[in-house]
């Protein structure tokens, strides 16, 4: 008897089966099951027909959770920076615990994986999704959430759609101010390590760097810009490229702290003193910025506060959806600060620069 019952449970239709039968997404099926009004009548009829044909029994536990006072939201992540992710999770989990919000955290290995995870969470009763970078800048993910009418908040992004809000800092202004700070120290050859070119923040930080140099009448030739991907490994490669120039920079501004820390490591390996021989500055002000030597001068991006604001913003939108209110487009901008520590100084004098160039040439010759 138990064996027959177990087999019957394994063969029971799932919400995905209903979605396939009706020709809709699992998210839409979930909305019909939960009695939400923002579904076309024709679609609702198709879903109900599929439920009857397949004999599908909705998950009552998920439905009761969805209708209870508690809010269940999901957070999808695939960020390569462990330091960034750590602060993001601290802020999100702390804020969720304060407001009777259950936060479901899911790791995604690819964009396609993230889409399937998002669909699974919504089908299981999750009412809203938090998407930090890089997912917050991926068009397919944003289109999926938009088309499914799932309330979402994009973190560190300026994406705003009808049902997708966002929270960020002004990345352009932050990079501009850091570059101006380095210029004011007296540096004229300033290298820059970019972030992942699939993220909007990367382009805005690069634009801030370029505009600050142009305003000061300084060169921002392509040889001074090295490609990074927000990972420590990419920072090592990018720094090596900059240091091998015939006229290497006297300062390097990296698009995040991981790559700035990698730059400091390469500098030390090449016998350069930071900051006497080389100024290195980062971005984010994660825990890494104060655990290396010397401590990094960096842009303080309030990651924990951004996560808290994102949780509040999403909870607000979920409650509005429950009350059948229209969701307005909204972008919340938080303040940044320039945190100056021990990794920046005026450029080295000509004697030290000559010594550096001699050392570089000697290394190239073997």
From TrEMBL:
Residues 337-366 are annotated as: Disordered. Residues 13-67 form the HTH lacI-type domain. InterPro entries: HTH_LacI (IPR000843), LacI/GalR-like_sensor (IPR046335), Lambda_DNA-bd_dom_sf (IPR010982), Peripla_BP_I (IPR028082). It holds the Pfam family Peripla_BP_3. Residues 348-366 have a biased composition (Basic and acidic residues). CDD domains: HTH_LacI, PBP1_SalR. This is LacI family DNA-binding transcriptional regulator. It comes from Microbulbifer halophilus.
């Amino acid at each position: 008897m138990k064996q027959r019952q177990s087999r019957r449970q394994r063969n029971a239709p799932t919400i995905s089966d209903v979605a396939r039968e009706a020709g809709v997404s699992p998210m839409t099926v979930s909305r019909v099951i939960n009695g939400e009004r923002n579904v076309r009548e024709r679609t609702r009829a198709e879903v109900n027909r599929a439920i009857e044909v397949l004999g599908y029994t909705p998950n009552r536990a998920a439905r009761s959770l969805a209708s209870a006072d508690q809010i269940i939201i999901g957070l999808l992540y695939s960020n390569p920076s462990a330091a960034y992710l750590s602060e993001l999770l601290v802020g999100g989990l702390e804020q969720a615990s304060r407001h009777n919000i259950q936060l479901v955290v899911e790791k995604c290995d690819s964009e396609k994986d993230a889409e399937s995870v998002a669909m699974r969470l919504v089908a299981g009763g999750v009412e809203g999704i938090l998407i930090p970078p890089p997912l917050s800048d991926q068009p397919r993910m944003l289109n999926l959430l938009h088309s499914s009418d799932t309330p979402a908040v994009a973190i560190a992004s300026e994406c705003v759609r009808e049902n997708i809000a966002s929270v960020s800092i002004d990345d352009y202004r932050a990079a501009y101010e850091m570059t101006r700070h380095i210029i004011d120290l007296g540096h004229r050859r300033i290298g820059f390590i970019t972030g992942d070119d699939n993220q909007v923040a990367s382009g805005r930080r690069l634009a801030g760097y370029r505009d600050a140099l142009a305003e000061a009448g300084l060169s921002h030739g392509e040889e001074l810009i090295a490609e990074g991907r927000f990972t420590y490994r990419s920072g090592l490669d990018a720094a090596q490229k900059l240091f091998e120039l015939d006229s290497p920079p006297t300062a390097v501004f990296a698009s995040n702290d991981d790559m700035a820390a990698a730059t400091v490591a390469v500098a030390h390996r090449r016998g350069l003193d930071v900051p006497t021989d080389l100024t290195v500055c980062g971005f984010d002000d994660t825990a890494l910025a104060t655990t290396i030597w010397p401590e990094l001068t960096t842009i303080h991006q309030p990651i924990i506060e951004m996560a808290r604001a994102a949780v509040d913003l999403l909870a607000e939108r979920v409650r509005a959806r429950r009350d059948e209110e229209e969701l307005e487009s909204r972008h919340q901008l938080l303040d940044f600060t320039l945190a100056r520590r021990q990794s920046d100084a005026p450029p080295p004098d000509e004697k030290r620069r000559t010594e550096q160039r001699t050392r570089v040439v000697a290394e190239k010759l073997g």
